[in-house]
Amino acid sequence: MVCERSADLVKPYESGLFCRVVIFIVFISINFGVCECEGISPEKCLIWGLGLNPDRVLPVRYFYIQAVNSKGENLTLSPGKDTFKVKISSLDKKEHIRIHVPPPLDREDGSFLVRYRLYGTALNGLKIDVLHNDAPVAMSPYIMQGPCCNMH
Fold first, then answer.
1. Taking a C-beta distance cutoff of 8 angstroms, is the pair 48, 64 a contact?
2. Whether the predicted pLDDT of 69 surpasses 50
3. DSSP 8-state class, residue 66
């Protein structure tokens, strides 16, 4: 009798567990069935912001990247935090200037915030390379002519 009752207590648990697994699988397939990151089109992505203007002097300069798929549609989900790489350097190779460029900040909506700080003045200007899988993004490289000053 004791064995029968313990078996009866286990049966609803087993069927309940099975239902939970099925519901979980359905939930995952609905919400994450299509990966938007597969179709990023680097040349169709958008880049804008004050950090691309040499006349703006800010303590930390910034600009935005909007990920766009091959159909020309803005992504609305994060394609991943390592989607874009940004390299910033002085136009004059002989000029040494320290530039702090942290990885782009994933805003989890298909867009990224890029921040950078100059620790000196780039007299001839800056070159900003934005890359996705080593391919130039949008109109990259961006050339900022003239002196690009840091805020004192």
1. yes
2. yes
3. E
